[in-house]
Amino acid sequence: MVRKALEYLDPLAREAGNDAALPGELAMAYQRVGDVQGNPFSGNLGDPKGALESYRKALAIREALLVAQPDDRPRQRDLTAILDRIGDILRANNDPRQALEHFRRSLETRQSLAAAEPGNLELQRDLNVSHNQTGQALTLTGDSPGALASFRKAVEIAEGLIAQKTADAQTRSDLAISCNNLGDLLLKTGDPKGAVARHGQALACARLSPARIKTTPGSSATWRSATTSWVTR
Do 195 and 184 form a contact (C-beta atoms < 8 A)? Predict the structure, then answer.
């Protein structure tokens, strides 16, 4: 099935010409084929090399589209999605330095997008994802200080999202993931008390109802009082 899909897509990509809509559709098609081939976060055929090749074809198309329209924000966001996928494949296959390059490029684009639309909560969530990905790659390269800074930024953004909107399941999940990433690295770098606080925050985030979750950006005081009761039970 994948081979037939590529046999269909590759000639189309070469012949796209001046069709305004086709390149974007082709990029998405290559991205979906790559997901089937080897996306490490979904069921796949176990072909990371093939997935990376498909993702890079999608990336080349996304980059070409932005050369034509560099200020197109939806296209910029599409670019970050494929950069993330390439980074995920590289990280999962023991190439964290190359993964880090892609995650950082995605992060820089998302920072620009979020700065242009500070009230856009979806763009803030994208930033949270990027800081977690960058932190994970930095951890694998041995840059613990850099990774800690990235994870702390991810936590700060997730706390800010909860302060700005109803603490729905997705937002609470974002905060729990960020806190667990930070807690894991704090433990590895010799700060068990900090690790317990962050893991407790993640636990509270997962177990408390949305109505009881109240915090402010950059502050963990409310979380500490909540998590203490959970950790000591």
Answer: yes
pLDDT digits (tens, 9 = 90+) for 170-206: 889 999 999 999 999 999 999 999 999 999 999 998 7
Please name the residue that has the structure tokens 């994208």.
Answer: 126
Statement to judge: residues 89 and 128 lie in one domain: no
Single out the residue of 80, 156, 69, 66 nearest to residue 113, CA to CA. 80
Write the pLDDT tens digit of every residue in 46-74.
999 999 999 999 999 999 999 989 999 99
Phi-psi region of 17 (alpha: psi -120 to 50; beta: other; left: phi over 0): left
- Structural domain containing residue 12: 1-94
CB atoms within 10 A of CB 182: 27
Work out the number of other CB atoms within 10 angstroms of the CB of residue 229.
10
Q: Which residues of 89-121 are buried (b: 16+ CB within 10 A; e: fewer)?
A: bbbbbebbeebbbbbbbbbebbeebbeeeeeee
Q: Is residue 99 part of a domain?
A: no
